[in-house]
Amino acid sequence: MSYLDYDALEHAPLQKDPYEFLIVENFVKPDAFASIMADFPAVPGAGSHPPSELKIEGRFKAMLDELQKEPFRRAIEKKFAIDLTGRPTMYTVRGFLRGTDGSIHTDSETKIITVLLYLNDAWVSEGGKLRILRSGTDLENFAAEVPPSNGTLLVFKRSDYSWHGHKPYEGQRRVVQMNWVTEQAVVDREQRRHSVSTRFKKIKNFLFGRAA
Fold it and tell me: Is residue 22 part of a domain?
């Protein structure tokens, strides 16, 4: 069973203003969305958490596994006219935002393609909607704004001007982030860093109670 709508991805236009990106609404098939949401793992707080530190199971695991298979890679390669053969992938899961998150940035040079898959119900807040920006200094100068809801997929090619950010929001905001990166050492380093942070938050929650 496929949980992802490859036909919608194939027909989604590749935008090139101000850099290469695409948006696919309902990329997670609507008839699977609720069950995947129900299996979303508990996370110990804000920040990025590697799947190795979480309880990944059920339909959520099946969807995550599907993202790592060849059909998705080939679809992205075709869209962005890029060869990702041999490029390692890195995954993290986020469940909460802090009010200080969302500052404008471009992603590190070690990232090639960034994939964001949003797993929230209908989004009503003005904050937390990722903006594709034309400037590294102006959050209001944007080409697109992406509500983080209903299985929406955002993919963009990292560059020195792939600026993005969002207005402040504090609270639950579920997203899977996947990156194709330059080399395995990047994956090892970043996963190790995120693992340490996740374990620290688990200990803190155990001792003092959970805080997003």
Answer: yes
Output the domain CATH number for residue 123. Answer: 2.60.120.620
Closest Cα to residue 195, out of 54, 38, 1, 94?
A: 54
Flag whether 108 is in a domain: yes
The whole model's pTM is what?
0.92
Instruction: Give pLDDT tens digits for 61-109.
Output: 999 999 999 999 999 999 999 999 999 999 999 999 999 999 999 999 9
Does residue 179 form part of some domain? yes
Instruction: Classify residue 198: in a domain, yes or no.
Output: yes
Range of the domain at 83: 6-205
DSSP secondary-structure letter at 156?
E
Q: 3-state secondary structure string, the chain?
A: CCCECHHHHHHCCCECCCCCEEEECCCECHHHHHHHHHCCCCCCCCCCECHHHCCCCHHHHHHHHHHCCHHHHHHHHHHHCCCCCCCCEEEEEEEEECCCCCCCECCCCCEEEEEEEECCCCCCCCCCCEEEECCCCCCCCEEEEECCCCCCEEEEECCCCCCEECCCCCEEEEEEEEEEECCHHHHHHHHHHHHHHHHHHHHHHHHHCCCC
What is the tally of structural domains in the chain? 1
